[in-house]
Specification:
Blueprint: H1 6-16, H2 21-28, H3 32-35, H4 51-59, H5 63-72, H6 86-93, H7 96-104, H8 119-126, H9 129-137, H10 151-157, H11 161-169, H12 184-191, H13 194-202, H14 217-223, H15 227-233, H16 236-243, H17 270-292, H18 296-315, E1 325-329, E2 339-343
Antiparallel strand pairs: 1-2
């Protein structure tokens, strides 16, 4: 689980969000010649930003600050505290100008984070079609190694049909297998994306693949009571045979749950809660000031950051994934421990 420095968040939100994002971007996008100038020599006095600061500034679209850091000698593959490199963050956000800048300065299109995720996978999960097209046009690797999660897995699990079609048109392996052998089609069944199930079958997806746990598309369709999908992935004879099996054959379904459904954990330290609450109050005041000055976009960004801090405060010292996390846990060595779910804060839908 990633942790943020609350004091860092307060300072940066107070400074970075005082200007509207469109003004900051317009001032600093620069010319094509500037972007192609390449990585500047590192200044002897340059100290890289901490991972939290770096990630927050890029997630807010601060291309001006990114350019400044790169000019001072920042590694173009520098890692933020969450998501991954700057290019991964830009792909997640669908920020093409930022992607242009980072790759021009030497960012690795196919660098992976600690979870094995690449920029293309982040863009696919988020349904950022333009970012996916950009990455593919610049040579990003479309398929993963055997028995690894792929960009197509991510697009299908996220229900992003347009991106899934785009990846398939560019050669994505329709029968790619995950770390525990689950197919792309199985992920569409798991999440109940009937249109994607149809699309994949029409394009030739193998309906008979089983993972290391012995489950396949038909088993998951019955487990989640999706009989219409079950008819798509099976012959009439297979469907009838499966329908006549006892319900216990399929086990209990495990779906994408709100974080609140996780087991109870020890309560966080009261001093930590109080300190975080005080910071949140400060940011709320700042948000009000921004709104009163007509800087609604900046105020909105700060409000979203406050919401994330509130969620983090509630999760303090708890082993719960951060807000809106695509959590996949699977091992060929322990197939019985397979899990794939989307975890998000109560009251808020997945991204």
């Amino acid at each position: 689980m990633w942790r943020y420095s609350i004091s860092t968040l307060v300072g940066l939100c107070a400074v970075a969000l005082l200007l509207p994002a469109d003004v900051s971007r317009a001032q600093e996008e620069g010319t094509a010649d500037e972007i192609s100038a390449g990585k500047a020599a590192a200044s002897p006095e340059f100290t890289p930003p901490d991972a939290v600061t770096f990630g927050m500034r890029l997630e807010s679209g601060d291309i001006a600050q990114l350019r400044h850091w790169l000019d001072a000698g920042l590694d173009p593959d520098y890692l933020a505290d969450r998501i991954g490199t700057g290019l991964m963050i830009a792909a997640w956000q669908g920020d093409i100008p930022m992607m242009d800048l980072l790759v021009a300065r030497g960012a690795d299109l196919d660098k992976a984070n600690a979870l094995g995720e690449r920029a293309l996978m982040h863009a696919s999960w988020r349904g950022q079609a333009d970012a996916v097209k950009w990455l593919l046009a610049h040579g990003a690797r479309i398929n993963s190694d055997p028995f690894q999660w792929s960009a197509l897995h991510y697009a299908v699990f996220g229900g992003k049909g347009e991106v899934a079609a785009l990846l398939l048109e560019h050669g994505a392996d329709i029968n790619a297998r995950s770390t525990n052998g689950s197919s792309v089609l199985m992920m569409a069944v798991y999440e109940g994306h009937e249109d994607l199930v149809r699309q994949l079958i029409e394009r030739g997806a193998d309906t008979g693949v089983k993972n290391d746990w012995g489950d396949g598309a038909l088993a998951w369709a019955f487990k989640f009571k999706r009989h219409a999908i079950a008819r798509l992935v099976a012959t009439q004879e297979e469907f009838v045979a499966a329908a006549n099996l006892p319900r216990t054959q399929w086990g209990e379904p495990v779906r994408s749950d709100p974080a609140a459904s996780a087991p109870a954990q020890p309560e966080p330290d009261e001093a930590t809660i109080d300190a975080t609450a005080a910071r949140i109050e400060e940011l709320l005041k700042l948000s009000g000031i921004l709104a009163s000055r007509g800087l609604t976009e900046a105020a909105g960004k700060l409000d979203r950051r406050i919401a994330a801090m509130r969620a983090q405060r509630a999760r303090a010292n708890r082993d719960i994934p951060s807000i809106a996390v695509f959590e996949i846990s699977a091992s060929r060595a322990s197939p019985g421990e397979q899990k794939a779910r989307l975890v998000f804060e109560p009251g808020g839908p997945p991204p």
